[in-house]
Design goal:
The complex is a heterodimer. By secondary structure, chain A is mainly alpha-helical. Chain A has 13 helices and no strands. Chain A has one domain. Chain A starts with a helix and ends in a 14-residue tail after the last helix. Chain B is of the alpha/beta class. Chain B folds into two domains: 179 residues, Rossmann fold, CATH 3.40.50.300; 79 residues, no CATH class. Chain B is built from eleven helices and ten strands. In chain B, a hairpin with a 2-residue loop joins strand 9 and strand 10. Chain B is globular and about 70 Å long. The chains are: A mainly alpha, B alpha/beta. The interface between A and B is medium-sized, with 25 and 35 residues.
Chain lengths: 333, 270
């Protein structure tokens, strides 16, 4: 095999892995949008908040320590323990569930039957509130997230593939980040379990029922409020997983919340209402931008990854606004 | 919370009152949808609610199943005065319904749609569902059996796995009836179950309704426009017009009621 061919394969593989990371974020959007018709602007901040909380628990930080110190003139920062990653993750899950309950009690409950734009505005407010809350609780400095996910290139893969190239050419094997491999496995497990859950359990069916028709769901005895709490909790947990993966990659800091922006083109490609759409949309964008950067990038000065996804989304908006898998909206006139 | 309709209705004999509405008035802003309406439903009967378009028939069903809360009047259910409740709580009391414009879960299969009808009879919680093995699985199997019985009853075995959005109109109506039946309701509310059907489909649907009444002893309230069907299958009829009750009695009594004839045929304006 020629090195060029192998390089292209490596680019595609890396693209798929990057795509999985985008899909993880997009998934949270789709879950909430399907169940309640809300475009949750706060999804990215939820990922940031979850990652901050996780680091905070793990390193034994005292929540609100800056506030407490400023008010009482004390100087406490840490409980002085470190928790194992598993415990910290479980605690974060609990926090995200509590968060879902609070959102329902304090926000959604009061906005039932409002226009989508009003709910959207509410989630913008929520995003800024959470951002501030996260800073207040855990401090705004950049944190390092380490839950034991391996990092760096996979040496095994590099050595394994190094001999594939034709004799005499210089090829050193494929470089794939182990973190990306873990993220892919985690995402696959997450999606399969979510699918099984929604197909074969009472709660899962209720989630789908609410996504389809609120009135009918009420008439068979489903409480919308309970379902919203469950959906937001699941979206919170998905956000946490995304936060862990992205946080491990690039540190936990404010810019983590901007990964939500990268999920937008994914949603436009995949459709806002389709879980398979979120995954395939993510993969297409991941592979597309890496291949474009590899093939066309050098000709036009590079850095195409910054805008490729958005241009692709724009093209889709013009020719197929419902996305690849979204429901086509047909209205009777 | 689990469906407690059966225990609520257990001390009501056939022929005794299951539900009654008393002096119900409902308005939306300045528009009066219902004015001072009272009637009752006795156990095991088919009770038709008829009237011209805009008479308030659907509003009446929406009051009974909790979508609307009347400004005045009371609802008595199984001998007790009913407090204002959410529709999903009322579903847990054994009241199931279908809708005028089919409200199925379009993306789901026939089977899944009817399974959602079992919602109030399943009691495992979301944590148990997350682990799946054990109680959740057991409960799923038990309820699936019930659903298969209903699928057999309605003769829709062949469309079990079809997404309902793809089914023809008549079958969708039948699946919607199936979803309501899956709740094993004490009181079944049918909003125009035969609208838009051809004669054959109407006959099938009438037969199913009568079978439900006979086999399960379910009390049924139905809204229907086809007078032939109404006269054939209902035991008693309530007639509404402009939100007021203008007739109540057996099909024969209603047919000969002058106010009803006027409402349907119109009266010349002097």
């Amino acid at each position: 095999m020629s090195p060029d061919f192998l390089n292209t394969i490596e680019v595609i593989l890396n693209g798929l892995m990057a795509g999985v990371m985008y899909s993880l974020v997009a998934l949270g959007f789709v879950l909430i949008f399907k169940a309640s018709g809300i475009f949750n602007y706060a999804q990215g901040v939820m990922a940031l908040f979850a990652a901050m909380t996780l680091v905070g628990f793990q390193t034994g930080q005292v929540p609100f320590s800056h506030l407490i110190n400023a008010v009482f003139g004390t100087s406490i920062h840490s409980f002085g323990w470190t928790l194992p990653a598993v415990v910290a993750v479980l605690l974060t899950v609990v926090v995200m569930i509590l968060f879902a309950i609070l959102v329902e009690r304090l926000v959604l409950k009061h906005l039932v039957n409002q226009e989508p734009i009003i709910l959207f505005m509410a989630t913008i407010g929520l995003a800024y509130f959470m951002e501030g809350m996260g800073d207040l609780m855990w401090g705004s400095e950049m944190k390092i997230l380490d839950v034991g996910v391996p990092q760096g290139g996979s040496l095994w893969l590099e050595e394994f593939t190094a001999g594939w190239a034709t004799e005499g050419s210089t090829y050193y094997g494929m470089y794939i980040d182990r973190l990306d491999i873990v993220a892919t496995v985690v995402a696959i497990v997450l999606v399969i379990s979510l699918t099984l859950f929604s197909q074969y359990t009472r709660t899962g069916r209720a989630l789908r029922a609410v996504a389809d028709d609120h009135q009918a769901a009420l008439s068979v005895g489903i409480s919308l409020r309970k379902i919203w709490v469950i959906v937001w909790a699941i979206a919170g947990i998905v956000a946490m997983v995304a936060g862990i993966m992205w946080g491990a990659k690039s540190g936990v800091q404010f810019s983590l919340s901007l990964i939500a922006l990268k999920a937008l083109p994914v949603l436009i490609l995949g459709g806002f209402t389709s879980i398979p759409g979120a995954i395939i949309g993510g993969l297409i964008i991941g592979v597309g931008e890496k291949l474009f950067e590899y093939g066309v990038g050098p000709l036009i000065g590079g850095a195409t990854e910054n805008w490729f996804a958005y241009v692709l989304a724009l093209i889709f908006l013009v020719f197929r606004p419902q996305g690849l898998f979204g429901d086509k909206i047909i209205e009777r006139v | 919370m689990k469906n407690h309709g059966t225990s609520l209705v257990s001390n009501i004999e056939p022929g005794q009152e299951v539900l009654s509405v008393q002096n119900i008035s409902l308005s939306f802003g300045g528009v009066k949808a219902l004015t001072d309406i009272s009637f009752d439903l006795v156990k095991g009967e088919v009770r038709a609610i008829i009237g011209p378009n805009g008479a308030g028939k659907s509003s009446m069903l929406n009051v009974i199943n909790g979508f609307y809360h009347p400004q005045e009047g009371e609802v008595f259910y199984c001998g007790q005065k009913r407090n204002a409740m959410k529709p999903h709580q009322i579903a847990h009391q054994g009241i199931a319904r279908t809708f005028q414009n089919i409200a199925l879960f379009k993306g789901m299969s026939t089977l899944d749609n009817i399974m959602t009808g079992r919602f109030t009879h399943m009691k495992t919680n979301v944590l148990q569902h997350a682990f799946w093995r054990g109680p959740a699985e057991q409960e799923e199997i038990e309820n699936r059996l019930k659903v298969e019985e209903i699928i057999d009853f309605l003769e829709i075995q062949t469309i079990r796995k079809t997404p309902v959005g793809r089914l023809p109109y008549g079958l969708q109506k039948r699946v919607e009836l199936g979803r309501a039946l899956a709740a094993e309701p004490v009181l079944l509310l049918l909003d125009e179950p035969m609208a838009g059907m051809n004669i054959e489909e109407k006959e099938d649907m009438s037969r199913f309704i009568l079978d439900v009444q006979e086999e399960f002893g379910t009390t049924i309230a139905l809204i229907e426009h086809d007078m032939g069907v109404v006269m054939d299958i209902s035991d008693r009829v309530v007639v509404l017009d402009y939100g007021k009750k203008i007739g109540d009695g057996t099909p024969d009594e209603v047919r000969n009621n002058q106010a009803v004839i006027d409402a349907y045929l119109g009266v010349p304006h002097e």
